[in-house]
Write a structure and sequence with these properties.
Blueprint: E1 8-14, E2 18-27, E3 30-42, H1 54-63, H2 74-94, E4 101-107, E5 111-112, E6 119-121, H3 131-141, E7 145-146, H4 156-166, E8 178-183, E9 187-193, E10 196-198, H5 221-225, H6 227-234, H7 242-247, H8 251-277, E11 285-289, H9 290-297, H10 302-318, H11 324-329, E12 330-331, E13 334-335, E14 340-342, H12 348-356
Parallel strand pairs: 1-4, 4-7, 8-11, 11-14
Antiparallel strand pairs: 1-2, 2-3, 5-6, 8-9, 9-10, 12-13
Helix pairs in contact: 2-3, 4-12, 6-8, 8-10
């Protein structure tokens, strides 16, 4: 049976290559995805669309923070329109009864416009400065009953952290200060401090974005720790994705993922140091999600992913044992139980955005 007409929530987890849209309901123990109410699709861009070089995008966004003057070419405009059509196709299929009222929340990759309603910079896809306005118009054109404007666009990391807060069995519920990180195509981040979820886009002087911060070898931290970056290292070395090859016993694939896990451990230490320097903020928990969370949770991947990640984090904290960040994370030289947690809640971003459509949880 479908839920009552006024109760349908839809959460959308938009990524670089595609999106997942879920029907969501709020239960007594938290938000959950409705069984059988999911649409998964890949973006289908025009053959002549190619993302504008990142440095140029950043400069153009600086010159037009609201996005109204971004110099978009026809292929990029058509790619953005195609995303809107694909999203509304999914929404329409989830509204199983004609006229069913619904609320909607979306996370999408990239840097968003100053008003939070569009995409001003996107490394792997089209810019879409009027995304939410165009989506609302398309819903209206098709006669869909969107009962309230969608909340502002968010990153998948912030949405996932919200999802871990509100979902049944979420890893951030009841934890005052925590950091969420997910290695997928890029690196997703969410931060909760003293019970409030913060907007990392407003804290870039304290916590620079991983894609803009170089490692000692010259690559960005995002390329070093993300699955997308590891896939680029693996490309040409063998058949199929690097994770599948590693699980099948390929030594080179395992070396790549082991290096990525160690890099992620170093990244966590950098984030903890930056937070400690920022008015003495310390974490009670780190949640690792997305594909990195699945690997961390998998005993079969422990030797070439989970163990190197944990060992790097532990040894780095022991070297800083006299600091508040270490004293909160270590017990007898090892990570405290529950400090480093793996999440396999793949739907966390969609659940978080559905909750935001109801203005939950608390956020700044």
């Amino acid at each position: 049976m479908p839920p009552p007409l006024e109760n349908l929530l839809i959460g959308v987890d938009g990524g670089a290559s595609g999106f997942r849209a879920h029907g969501v309901e709020r239960g007594r123990q938290g938000f959950v995805c409705q069984a059988g109410r999911e649409v998964k699709a890949s973006w289908s861009h025009p053959a002549d669309f190619h993302p504008t070089p990142l440095e140029r995008q950043l400069q153009e966004a600086k010159d037009s923070p609201a996005g109204e003057d971004l110099p978009l070419g026809n292929p990029e405009r058509e790619a953005a329109r195609g995303q809107v059509r694909a999203l509304v196709d999914a929404i329409e299929s989830l509204c199983v009864e004609s006229g069913q009222a619904f609320r909607l929340g979306l996370c999408m990759p990239g840097l968003h416009t100053a008003d939070g309603r569009g995409i001003a910079v996107c490394r792997h896809g089209p810019r879409s400065p009027m995304l939410l306005e165009e989506l609302v118009k398309e819903c209206a054109r098709r006669g869909l009953n969107l009962s309230a404007p969608p909340p502002d666009l968010q990153s998948d990391g912030r949405a996932a952290a919200w999802g871990e807060e509100v979902a049944r069995g979420g890893q951030l519920a009841g934890v005052a200060s925590a950091y969420y990180v997910g290695a997928g195509t890029g690196l997703a981040e969410g931060l909760k401090i003293e019970g409030v979820h913060l907007d990392l886009s407003r804290l870039r002087r304290v916590l620079p974005a991983a894609w803009g911060l170089p490692c000692p070898d010259g690559r960005s931290w995002e390329d070093e720790v993300s699955m997308g970056g590891m896939e680029r290292v693996w490309k040409g070395s063998g058949d199929g994705p690097v994770q599948g090859a590693a699980r099948a016993g390929d030594g080179h694939a395992q070396e790549i993922l082991c290096a990525g896990a160690r890099a992620l451990g170093q990244w966590l230490l950098l984030r903890m140091e930056a937070l400690q320097a920022w008015e003495g903020k310390v974490l009670q928990r780190i949640v690792v999600g997305q594909r990195s969370g699945q690997l961390l949770a998998d005993p079969g991947a422990a030797g070439w992913y989970g163990d190197p990640l944990q060992e790097t984090l532990e040894s780095g904290l022991r070297a800083r044992q006299d600091t508040p960040m270490a004293s909160h994370a270590l017990a007898a030289g090892s990570l405290r139980p529950g400090f480093l947690c793996a999440s396999v809640l793949r739907e966390a971003p969609a659940l978080g955005m559905a909750a935001r459509a109801l203005e939950e949880p608390a956020a700044l």
